[in-house]
Known about the structure:
The chain is an alpha/beta fold. Helices cover 51% and strands 11% of the residues. It has 14 helices and 7 strands.
Amino acid sequence: MGLIEKEFAEHLSNLSETEKYAFYFIDAHPYIIRQLTLTQLAERLATSNTTIIRMAKKLDLAGYSEFKYRAMATVKENTLPDQKDLIGQYRHLFTSLLDNVNFERLRYMATKIHEAKTLYIAGVGLTKPIAEYVAKRFIQLNKPTIYSYESHIIDLIPKLTRPQDVILFLSMSGETQSIIQAVKKFRYVDHNLLFSITNNGDSSLAKMMDANLSSSVPTNHFENYDITSRASLMVQADILIEIYMNMFDQPEN
Length: 253
């Protein structure tokens, strides 16, 4: 998901197919609107000025000028890891992460996962393989686990859960709109516990959780996409799994 798409995700369902075509073209080629006028952009898309203006208004903006400003503000200049001391940076990040591990919270999360009839795990985009990995680790520990990486399936999870089930959301930014919208539906579902692993303890997702594990890895962007390493999510997930295993999967004497 591009940064522009993420910025306006909650409004995209309002767009017509023609308007979505214009939007996703811009999302895929964000710097083009810096070079083209409204009329030139419309010609490039083989559409009308009116379509692009209508698209902007459906995104809850005053018009194309505001959309252009917001899009350019959202698309940051490429920020890549400093190659001069890459190993040192990772050493610092992991040391900071491990020094701040909250074992009480991890044990609480592990206990509730153990008590749950089913563990649901959700992750989209670049966190999809991590969600799959975490789910398979819990399945190996004989924990009934379901994972999903498709937005429309994640949206259905509130209809599938039973009391005391746990839902674990994985999101680097903690602002993934498809996950945020699904979480909002849990306000109408009783007796489920919501956990997350994010890179932002102050994110919208983290604030909606019963428990959240977070890191603070500096974000990196390239051509409108977040390319930040997901290693911190993996480390926190592995620690949670290891604590669960040590608490509840010890062989009997």
